[in-house]
User: Fold this.
Amino acid sequence: FSGNLLGTPGPSWITDPSLCKRGLCLNFDGVDDRVSIVNQSVFIQMPLTLIGWAKFDTLPTALIPPHVEPLMIKADGSNNSWSFSVGNSPSTPNRPFFTIFETSGVKHAVTADNPITTGTWWHQTGIVDASGNMSLYINAVKQCSSGGSCNTCPTPNINVTSANLGLGAIAANGGEPTDGILDELRIYNRVLSQEEISAIYTA
Assistant:
């Protein structure tokens, strides 16, 4: 997919490969930087797998309402499909998560067992299969083994929205901006196996 770099001045390319996970990567300023990718039907079809590397300079701060910093987000702030992000809430501070919104407005989420820290790369994978069962992997390890929250009710559908796909913030307005570096963001319209996730993580 190709997208437009938006914001003031917009995400900047990091060309030193030693600062990225794979080749080049994008740095986001935490103000309004984002990449906007034109809405496509493949973004809201199940099964769906989202993958990406991230390293944040700062973490979400607000607790009420919970503040998030997205790797990828299909939403406009009021009409949402899904969020693949790090969130801050009283019960799960600074933890990666994957949330899907149903057409009815009900949302389902899986949350990582542990918080992430600034200045450290992590690999995040969110999956929803054709039956709506969700899972989350951090550094190729399946979550919800201890302190994370697992989705217990399969998601029957993904809310259909016209919102563009945003990398690093909501595409339409730069809301929920990420402060840090994103690399190797991928979308698959199938469920990746544990072996495939591990191979991508260690490549």
Notes: The mean pLDDT is 91. The helical segments are 194-202. DSSP finds one helix and 14 strands in the chain. The CA atoms of residues 39 and 161 lie 8 Å apart.
